[in-house]
Structure formats: structure tokens, C-alpha cells
Amino acid sequence: MSSDKPRILSGMRATNPRGLHLGNYEGALRNWVHLQDDFKVYCMVADYHALTTMGDLPPNLGFITREVAKDYVSAGLDPQRTSIFVQSRVPEHAELHLVLSMVTGLGKLERVPTYKEKKDELSSGHPVSYGLLGYPVLQAADILLYKPYGVPVGKDQAPHLELSREIGRSFNAAFDCQVFPEFKDIIDGDELRSKVPGLDVDDQGQLRKMSKSYDNCIYLSDTADQVAAKIQSAFTTPTKIKKTDPGIPEGCAVCQYLKLYSPDWKTQWSEDQQGLRGCVQNKRELTECLNEFLGPFREKRAQLDDASIEEILKRGTEEAREFASQTMREVRKAIKID
Ligand code: AMP
Question: C-alpha distances in angstroms, 170 versus 45, 166, 336?
Fold first, then answer.
């Protein structure tokens, strides 16, 4: 599938058998769906990346990969326009990772903030792997293979992207070539969407990010009943016991989701603050809005069995490989092993 549109590269790790949650959608996927109109999108399921933080138990990566791909398509990525592919099935990712690791300083990798965080999380007897340290080099390979105009990412990924650019420049300088052009960050600026809160709060009673590791997620594949039950137990203003008590929508998970999914959120927030409505009504109305929003996702997902998603992945992987193998030919020529 050749296209004259500028390319962008995007992707998520295949870490969760439940697939993607509302945070993944609002913080990244929603933007990718819109970008399809103006860009040729290469969208990866990053299965190799999942191995860097998986711990001891090998997950069923094939299963998780298909679940993530089903979420991509059900949320609106169009396989006719977008190449949806699997990282490990395009071997050029691993090959370029190896080559780029030769031009990447160790110090740079050790200074990446997310490496330090992940290393500290693992400190309870789990050895730090070379793969974890080299994660940004694999990410640089993922990006640079497609010579993209830009990369849409969540704000948390910005330091990695800068490092990817530096690695591309280092390669060009080391081999006196221009194989890798510069690319831009495409960051969606919406504050709430870039940090969607989960259903619960932290030790200090503050809303925290929706994340698989906190088990506080609403998944794109949740049924209407699962969504209703989760909203039922979602955190609300703790001092609002009776309907007439004033609410604090900024600190209430249900009100935050109303802001995202209800066209009437301003009225709902104002009534909540004034004690004119209770949490039960908020939850009921949110359940309706969110289930209405997720309805089309569920309909599309119901049409996607394993065979049809594999077909989509096969075609997308072939398209991605076509481009990636051309870049690798240029890389081999630059390092004079062609
Ligand atoms: P992860 O699988 O955690 O690496 O997340 C994949 C993408 O989803 C990244 O671009 C994150 O920035 C985004 N993301 C994850 N959780 C949230 C959240 N709670 N709110 C907004 N974006 C999120």
C-alpha cells in the first residue's frame, strides 16, 4: 500500500491480556484515529517491548497482541488506510536495534528517567536486564525504520523521542550518511486526556492515573454490565454523603469521566458543586453516556475473530516490511556490509 501522505509511526506495548483501557484510548489512540486523515499511519503492536518489563512469567504474547490489535480496529483504526503490524514479525526492527546499539552511549541510556524508575521498581531481587536498559534503542529502531514525519506520543514518552532523534543523528554522523531524517513529536496537549484518572485514589486520597498495575481501569472491551459495575464502585467526593452536600468534581473520578463523555458535563458539575444532584444520579448518567460511547467499539469488536485480526496483521506486516526492508538496505550500504 504506497501512499503520498507523510508517514507517522505509533504503537503500544502488548502487556495486558485485557487489551487497552480508556487511558490508552484518550491519551494516544484517539489521536491516531484522527491522524489517519492526513497521514499514512504505521501502527505497531510492540510485543518485543512487552518482554522488557514482564518479570519471570512469559505471557501469552500472541494472545495479547491480537487483543490490542482488536482494540485498535474497534476504536477506529482503518486497516484499509493504516498498516497495523506486529513488531516481532518485522525482523528489521531487531536488526536495526542491534546496529543502533553500536552508536548509543551507555551513559545516555542510564540517564533516561523511565529506566531509573523501572530499575527502582524492580529492585526487590529482580536483576536489571540489558533489554530494559536498551529499551529506548529498540524504540529508536521502531521509529527510524519508517523515516516518519512525526511520532504521536503521550507526554511521558518525550525523553525517549529525544533520545531516538539523537541516536539517528549519531548513526548519520558515524557513517557519514543521511539515512535517518529528523522527525517531529506530535503531542496531544489536552491535560485530562493525557492523564485519565483511574477508578480509585492513592494513599493520600488523590486520583491517580488509570493503569493496569493499579487495577483501576475501564477497558475498551468491557461489557455494558462491567462498565456499570465499575462506575458503581468508582471514587466520588468523600465528604458528599447526602445529595445536598457540595461535591468537588476536580477530585471525583465520576465527574472527571463526565467531563470526557457527557455533553452536559458543565451543568452536571455545577449541580454537583451546589448540592443539587447526588453521586447516584452522576453515576447513572455517566453509565449511559459511556456505554453509548463504547457501543460502536463493541459492535466492531464483535465482528473481529482471531482469524480476521490475523488477516489484518498479516497484510499490515507485509506493508510495514516493504518499507522497513528498504531502510535496512540503506543502513547496510551505509555501514558497508551490503
Ligand atoms: P503504556 O501501555 O502504559 O505504555 O501506555 C501506552 C500509551 O497510552 C502511552 O502513550 C501512554 O501515554 C498512554 N496512557 C497510558 N495510561 C494512560 C492514562 N491513564 N491516561 C492517558 N494516557 C495514558
Answer: 27, 6, 17
**Is the shortest distance between the CB of 188 and ligand 1 below 6 Å?**
no
The CA–CA distances, whole Å, from 200 to 207, 278, 315, 326 equal: 6, 19, 40, 47
**Any residues with CB less than 8 A from the CB of 328 and at least 6 apart, and which?**
92, 95, 96, 145
* Ligand 1 neighbour 19 (Cβ under 6 A): no
Q: Are strands 207-209 and 197-201 parallel, antiparallel or unpaired?
A: antiparallel
Q: Which of 130, 148, 54, 137 is nearest to 94 (CA)?
A: 137
- pLDDT tens per residue across span 100-136: 999 999 999 999 888 888 787 776 667 788 999 999 9
Kindly report, residue by residue over 215-258, the tens digit of the pLDDT: 999 999 999 999 999 999 999 999 999 999 999 999 999 999 99
* φ/ψ (deg, to 5) at 297: -60, -45
Q: Is the CB of 186 under 6 A from ligand 1?
A: no
